[in-house]
Amino acid sequence: MMAFIDRVPEEFRTTGPVGVLQLNITGKCNLRCAHCHIMKNSDHDEMSKETMDKCVEALKKHRFHTVDITGGEPTTHPLLIPFIREVSEYTDDIILRTNAVAMDKNPELMELLDEKNIHVVVSLPCYTEDNVDSQRGEGTFKHVIPNLQKLNAMGYGSKKDLSLVNNPLGAYLPGPQDGLQADYRKYLEEEGVEFSELFTITNMPMGYFGDKLRDEGIEEEYMKLLEDNFNPDTVENLMCRFQISVDPKGRIYDCDFHQAERIPAATYKTIDEVIEADDLSRPMVWKEYCYGCTAGAGSSCGGALAE
User: Fold this and answer.
1) Per-residue pLDDT tens for 40-69?
2) Are 173 and 296 in contact (CB under 8 A)?
C-alpha cells in the first residue's frame, strides 16, 4: 500500500481556514451500530461543565462559524440544552448529530429545536426497516420514524435543515449521493417523512466495523478497495483541514476518526492550548485509513466531497 501522505499534494498537508469546532460531548450511546467507529473503544465519559465552559471560551476567541455537536449520542448529555443555548450566542450555525431514537423522551430538547434553527443530522443507514435494524438493532427504525415526523411538524426538512446520513451495510463504498437521496425520498415519503438532504459516509476500517472486517477475513481487501478508489479531487476539501475535533476530556484531534484511534493533533493538544493559541493552522496528521475519506466521491461529516 502506498503511504497516504504521499498522495497528498504539499499545499494540502496543512489546514485551511479552521472554522468548525466539532465537539464530542459524550462517549455514551444508546445503540451499538455495526458500522460504528467510536463506541468500541469509548471510555463512556461525558464532557464536564468545566470543559464545556472552556469550549465556549475557545469559541469566543476564535469565532468558529460552526459548532458541530456529536458523540456517542449527544442527546443523552444532561447539560446539552443549556450548552446549546450558550453556544448559540457565539456562532453562526449549530449542528446536532443524533440517532434520533429517544428524542421524544426529551421534551425540553424538542422545545429547544422548535425554538432554534439548529441543523439536525440524523444517522439512518438505509431507508428500509430491515436494513436499518440489521445494522442498528431491532426496533430502531420504528423508534426513529415517529421522531422524524415530529421534527417535520416543527419545520425540519422544509424550513429548517434536517439531514440524513447513509452508511453502507457492508464492505463497499457508498453509492452516488444524488441517486441514494432520490431513493430515500421515495421510500420515506411512504412513511410521511421529508428531509433536506442526504449525506453519504464511507465506513472506516476501525471500531466495530473493523472487527467485522477482521472476522470475515477481508480487512486487507477493504483497505485495497479504499486505496484503489483514491480520488485526488477530494483532498483539498477534506473536513479535517477546516476543523478541530474535541473529545469529552478536552483533548484535540484532526477528526472524529483520529479521536476514535486516540491520535492527537500535531500542535495544540488540549482545549486549553486552543484558547491560548492565536493561530489555529497546523500540519495535518495522516494515517492509511484516510483513504476512506478520499475514496470514490469522498466522505465527510457533510457527505460526498466530489461529484
Assistant:
1) 777 889 999 999 999 999 999 999 999 999
2) yes
**pLDDT-based confidence at 271, cuts 50/70/90?**
very high
> Which of 79, 81, 23 has its CA nearest to residue 49?
79
Compute and round to an integer the Cα radius of gyration of the chain: 18
pLDDT number for residue 37: 83
- Angle at CA of residue 169, ends 193 and 232, nearest 5°: 100
Tell me the C-alpha to C-alpha distance, in Å, between residue 227 and each of 9, 150, 230. Answer: 16, 41, 5
| Distance of alpha carbon 234 from alpha carbon 249, whole angstroms | 31
Task: Kindly report the number of other CB atoms within 10 A of residue 68's CB atom.
Answer: 25
Q: What is the three-class DSSP state of 66?
A: strand
- Burial pattern 194-225, b for ≥16 Cβ within 10 A else e, equals bbbebbbbbbbbbbbbbebbeeeebbeebbeb
Question: What is the CB neighbour count within 10 angstroms for residue 304?
Answer: 23
Residue labelled with grid coordinates 415526523? 149
Distance of CA 120 to the CA centre of its chain: 11
Separation of alpha carbons 167 and 238, rounded Å: 18
Q: How far apart are CA 276 and CA 290, in angstroms?
A: 29
Residue 21: its H or E element: strand 20-24
Q: Which amino acid is at 181?
A: Q
Spell out a b/e string for 138-175, using b for 16 or more CB atoms within 10 Å of the CB, else e. eebbebbbebbebbbebebbeebbbbbbbbbeebebbe
How far, in Å, CA of 11 to CA of 80, rounded? 38
d(CA 231, CA 52): 37
pLDDT digits (tens, 9 = 90+) for 60-100: 999 999 999 999 999 999 999 999 999 999 999 999 999 99
Contact partners, residue 71, CB within 8 Å, separation at least 6: 24, 25, 26, 27, 28, 29, 38, 77, 97
Phi, psi angle pair for 160, to nearest 5°:
-120, 150
Look up the pTM and report it: 0.96
Q: To the nearest 10°, the Cα dihedral for 255, 256, 258, 264?
A: 70
